[in-house]
TrEMBL record:
It comes from the Bacteria. InterPro entries: Cro/C1-type_HTH (IPR001387), Lambda_DNA-bd_dom_sf (IPR010982). This is HTH cro/C1-type domain-containing protein. It comes from Phocaeicola massiliensis B84634 = Timone 84634 = DSM 17679 = JCM 13223. Residues 1-47 form the HTH cro/C1-type domain. GO terms for molecular function: DNA binding.
């Protein structure tokens, strides 16, 4: 049975089941109850707490249910709990191997220039002429 078929069987969307299987979301009590209702041979203690046997002693016909494990890979019902996806937030981020940049200290130097002196003044007139004045030395 595929994950999509199982999601359809218990009455949830395939994307919701995918999020549960990938570890992004935990199953709600409603989802656990839907699993138990669809597969009544699965023990509630095992579903809720991971304790005891997965299957209970129910008649062998299982009310049309399927025998054996629900999925071959990424089982929602894996009891060891060691399958943690690499993209989970809990994964430690490795430190960068690039050394930090040096701090550059910038200095500004003000250089005093000698005082300016007036060397010439020109006055322009409206008739196109001008006069030049030079200070006496």
């Amino acid at each position: 049975m595929t994950a999509a078929q199982f999601a359809d069987k218990i009455g949830i969307s395939p994307s919701s089941l995918s999020h549960i299987l990938s570890g992004r979301n935990n199953p709600s009590l409603e989802v656990v109850m839907k699993i138990h209702k669809a597969c009544d041979y699965i023990s509630l203690d095992w579903l809720l707490y991971g304790e005891g046997e997965m299957e209970t002693d129910v008649d062998s016909d299982n009310n049309g249910s399927f025998p054996g494990p629900l999925f071959d890979e990424n089982s929602l019902f894996a009891s060891n709990g060691t399958n943690v996806p690499e993209y989970r937030k809990e994964i430690e981020v490795k430190a960068s191997t690039i050394p930090p940049k040096e701090i550059v200290r910038e200095e500004i130097k003000y250089i005093e220039k000698p005082a300016r002196k007036i060397t010439e003044i020109r006055i322009f007139f409206d008739n196109g002429t001008y006069e030049t004045f030079r200070p006496e030395k």
